[in-house]
Amino acid sequence: MSPRMRFPVVGALFAALVLLSGCGGGDEGPGQSSAPPTGQETMVELDIVIRADGQNQSAVYSLRCAGATALETSNHPRADEACALLAMHPQILDPAPAPGTQMCTEQYGGPATASITGTVDGKSVERDFDLKNGCGISAWNDALPLLVELTTGN
């Protein structure tokens, strides 16, 4: 192969490698990360308040987990699923993005709200959910095992 022909071939191979380097990776979806395994289980103590009408408490649950295992002191109806969700995706309890920092569809899912407070490994967590727009609906759906069901507020 002549030197003049070698440059385009090498350049094309380099470009293909650069493009493919962004592909693959882990099984995580957008915004998700897998927690590194540790020798110690994450301890979770959460109180979950649901307001189906957006104002009055319609349900209050306690969730206690050791890793992905629900503890008997939980009164949450989907405790096993909720603990498994938190073990796989602890970022679900990260604070919601500030208003105006993400684009959301202007669809209304209902008046329901939920508040989660407590501790994860001794660190305070506080996370609110609502159905005011597409971002809120998506966050609620992602946290569904924690929030028990998608309420309509009726």
Largest sheet: 5 strands, antiparallel
CATH superfamily of the domain at 43-96 and 105-147: Subtilisin inhibitor-like
What CATH first level of the domain at 43-96 and 105-147 would be assigned?
A: Alpha Beta
**What class would the helix/strand composition place it in?**
alpha+beta
Radius of gyration: 22 Å
Q: What is the overall pLDDT average?
A: 79
Which geometry do the CA atoms define? globular
Number of helices: 4
Q: Which parts are unreliable, with pLDDT below 50 for 5 consecutive residues or more?
A: 6-37
Q: Give the percentage of residues in beta strands.
A: 15-25%
Kindly report how far apart the N and C termini lie: 75 Å
| Number of E-type strands | 5
- Report the CATH architecture of the domain at 43-96 and 105-147: 2-Layer Sandwich
Please trace the helix and strand order, writing H or E for each element: HEEEHEEHH
Helix content: 25-40%
CATH topology of the domain at 43-96 and 105-147, by name, is Subtilisin Inhibitor
Strand order of the largest sheet: 3-2-1-4-5
Signal peptide: 1-26
Keywords: Signal
Protein name: Subtilisin inhibitor domain-containing protein
InterPro entries: Subtilisin_inhibitor-like_sf
